[in-house]
Amino acid sequence: MSTSSAPPDPVPPPPGGVLWSLAGDIRGLLMLPAAFTLQVAHPAVGAGVDEHSVFRTDPWGRGERSLRSVQLWVYGGEAAAEEGRRLRRLHATIQGTDTRGRPYHALTPANYAWVHATGFPVYHHAIRYLIRPLSEEQERRLYAEWLQVGRVLGIHDRDMPPTIEEFWPYYRKVLDEEIEATAVARELVSADVPLPPFDRGPLPLRLLMRAFWPVLLPPFARFRRFLTIGLMPPDAREAIGLEWTDQQERRLRRFGGVVRVVVPALPERLRYLPLAREARRRHRLTQRGRGARAARPGR
Q: pTM, whole model, 2 decimals?
């Protein structure tokens, strides 16, 4: 009698890959607002976030949870697949009507795949300023690893373009036919930044931050808006209707030049996010163990 077993869980991209090297870098934090804004500029995604998300009532907590989730997709090992299942369970009941009067469901393949797909063009664009331009081979590897992360999230291969050459026409078609300045997208590029909770760290520092937040808010809000728009691909920026001047482009290039010099000089504990840092440490230990075993004389 034959027996059947469940297929193995999809695995994250391998250590040493392009995404492994880039995703945990603190510069990724600067790219997230652009990616999230592009996601919610899709009418269905924007409506789902508008009606079901806590991004207005708990924006900082939501951001922290989203960041941890993204890091698990790449560095979580066996926990990555469980995080993918958790996200699908979380989105299973999210449905309604979008701004064009169409019914939507968060797990409809076109909607769910778009949320994941947006990260690739934003990453592709932003790393040119903040990290380094990728070679053609690195771009192909990055896209292949992006598809691998999609499998972790439960996105079927048929729902994402299988090659980078097929991705760009798909992406531009969505920009042309779907993307608009949704209410949530407009909010995310506004100058309105809520008060952080300031619930961690030494009490004197938290009290100091609370006292000075009204002073810090205006420049922080302008900086966030500047990066959100600037690190978004120009064609996506145009589809949403976001203005960007030559002067702003020059400022972004200068800022990127400083970041490219400063961040690589930081110690690892400051350069990489916690899950990435721990995954890198474990990988080094594994590599050393293999090297030690290989160096032992044969028996």
A: 0.88
